[in-house]
Write a structure and sequence with these properties.
25% of the residues are buried. The chain is elongated. It is mostly helical and 398 residues long. A hairpin with a 2-residue loop joins strand 2 (11-12) and strand 3. Helix content is 44%, strand content 9%. It is built from 13 helices and eight strands.
Length: 398
């Protein structure tokens, strides 16, 4: 069993779809069953446009149908209770857990896609019964602050085959680890990537496709301006669900990116044959792949003694932003917004008293984040939630 992404020539109803997952068995024949499911599930729903979602669906069913093919099992063989056997899906879950050693979270991810496949098969009349039983489970954050916005607060659909996931700390770089990473990163490209990831909280594919023309010269800005807005557009770069948004980048980080663009990038670009519009390019003058920073950061982490992943930069940004939130909703900001409906100025200077309060919040929070056991996941969640509620935010310049 193999899985291939389709080329641009692949069409459904006269519409071209590139990157669509196609499963091929050991005889070189396309698995029509999964292809029909992919068409209905990925093309028939507006919420499944992301190519990463397509890739995940393809990998999950490739793994399951590859297991069935290797074990000579039928996907629609569903023995009844008391028959002395269990469905092949149950065997597959045990195999992933005991033989392969997959983490429970990854098994549940794959199981979620396979469950959708069986529910689809039942709807179209391919099977009469399901190889699992559906149950309602209570989420661990059922008492969260947004609990009242849900129709069924704290409850979600699951199956009897889903595995229990242990709640662990969110993987976040502490302050000392961030300083170590920045001090130990000799490659100027990787150093600029780490700075941008920590300052703006971009995803891995957004870092890899960040356009060079987004970088601006901040040398003539007033010293009172600590950050500048950057508007991310899907026409310029890869953005999840093609949703444009605005992020703020510290002037210090923008100056570093400007130095990289004007000094390092031209020399790297001369080693390649193609002219790229992306900011970050390899030593061979080529663009980075969407996951192109995973391996370099992993090697750096091995050398430093702790794990580093591009998405950890995003987690660290969300959590450490809590340390630099200044007067989350102080009276003047609330009054301006509530009375006029307009956001208060982002570049107004802080008073001496406000600056002292900001430093106190920053020092206490960063000390808590520096604990060897990692960060409390609720603290990280609170940082992300609060960051979406309040306008008056100033980011720490890493």
């Amino acid at each position: 069993m193999k899985v291939y992404p389709s080329e641009r020539s692949f069409e459904v109803g006269g519409q071209s779809y590139e990157g669509f997952p196609i499963l091929v068995d050991n005889f070189g024949v396309i698995v029509e069953l999964t292809l029909r499911f992919f068409v209905d599930e990925l093309l028939g729903r507006s919420g499944a446009r992301d190519l990463k979602t397509w890739d995940a669906y393809g990998r999950h069913l490739y793994d399951y149908f590859g297991y069935l093919e290797a074990k000579n099992l039928r996907w629609d063989s569903i023995p009844g209770l008391g028959s002395g056997d269990i469905p092949p899906l149950a065997h597959y879950v045990r195999w992933c857990d005991s033989t392969v050693g997959n983490k429970p979270s990854y098994i549940n991810d794959k199981l979620g896609t396979i469950v959708r496949f069986y529910l689809w098969a039942q709807r179209v009349g391919l099977v009469k019964s399901l190889p699992f039983q559906q149950t309602d489970s209570v989420s661990s954050n059922a008492m969260g602050m947004l609990n009242h916005n849900s129709a069924n607060p704290g409850r979600r659909k699951t199956t009897t085959l889903h595995m229990t996931e242990a709640d662990g700390p969110i993987k976040v770089l502490s302050r000392s680890q961030i300083e170590t990473v920045l001090r130990s990163t000799a490659n100027p490209t990787h150093r600029a990537v780490v700075h941008l990831g920590l300052n703006a909280g971009l995803r891995a594919e957004e870092l890899a496709t960040f356009p060079a023309h987004y970088v601006e010269d901040c040398s003539k800005l007033s010293s009172k301006i600590k950050s500048v807005p950057v508007y991310l557009k899907p026409d310029d770069m890869d953005i999840k669900n093609d949703r444009p948004r605005k992020v703020r980048v510290s002037v210090e980080c923008m100056n570093l990116l400007w130095q990289y663009r004007e000094g390092v990038r031209p020399a790297l670009q001369n080693t390649g044959s193609a002219c790229s519009s992306k900011l970050f390019i390899t030593r061979y003058g080529e663009e980075f792949a969407a996951d192109g920073f995973v391996a370099p950061l992993a090697r750096l982490g091995l050398r430093l003694g702790f794990h580093i992943h591009p998405h950890m930069l995003r987690h660290s940004f969300a959590t450490h932003t809590l340390a630099s939130l200044v007067l989350l909703c102080h009276k003047s900001s609330c009054a301006v917004y509530c009375r006029t409906g307009r956001e208060p100025p982002l570049h107004e200077p802080l008073s001496k008293q406000d600056a002292q309060r900001s430093n106190g919040i920053r020092n206490v929070t960063l000390s808590a984040l520096d604990c060897p056991g990692g960060c409390n996941p609720r603290e990280g969640q609170a940082a992300r939630i609060q960051g979406s509620f309040f306008y008056h935010v100033r980011l720490i310049a890493f």
